[in-house]
Amino acid sequence: DVQLLESGGGLVQPGGSLSLSCAASGFTFRSYALNWVRQAPGKGLEWVSAIGNDGSTYYADSVKGRFTISRDNSRTTVFLQMTSLRAEDTALYYCTFGSSSGWAFDYWGLGTVVTVSS
Amino acid sequence: DIQMTQSPSSLSASVGDRVTITCRASQSISNYLNWYQQTPGKVPKLLISAASRLEGGVPSRFGGGGSGREFTLTISSLQPEDFATYYCQQSFSGASFGQGTKVQI
Question: What's the confidence (pLDDT) of residue B70?
Fold first, then answer.
């Protein structure tokens, strides 16, 4: 079975940094693009970042220059390094991917919570 | 970035009703449009991809249509388990979601 297990969330002060991980299993990790999608409390879904199977990276304008996505195919893990965090980055961060179309997300982890507050 | 706008933001309906949600893109996205359902406390579920392709296991009462800039999600006969929030998402250029439509009693 496909599994995506996010970790690394927590409480961080504004301006701080945090690194999220998503450990994947149950599929050929190196063949797929992986994404991060976030959901602020009581709000809608916001796509954050993607990394292709070739290592190409994509970011939402709201996080460009502050967040860095990377992957380690040997560990079947995708990472999201977040710096210069703001209160508006507070959200549940999901790891997700599309098994048929890279950008239609049919597999999701349960998410990890990031809270940016002083 | 491509902006996605859903209407309405919320709607009230009854079991058995036919419900239609509209999603408009700020530019043409061909058929690169996906629909998700999210119930409280749960992860989003992909219902429809490529504007009209029903994902496996999704009941046939769900239907998607449209192309270019305007798309619809229709639930032909609302069931109790369909009360949820629905999101459209464009996959033409990166990914962006609509703000969601809450379907409630």
Answer: 98
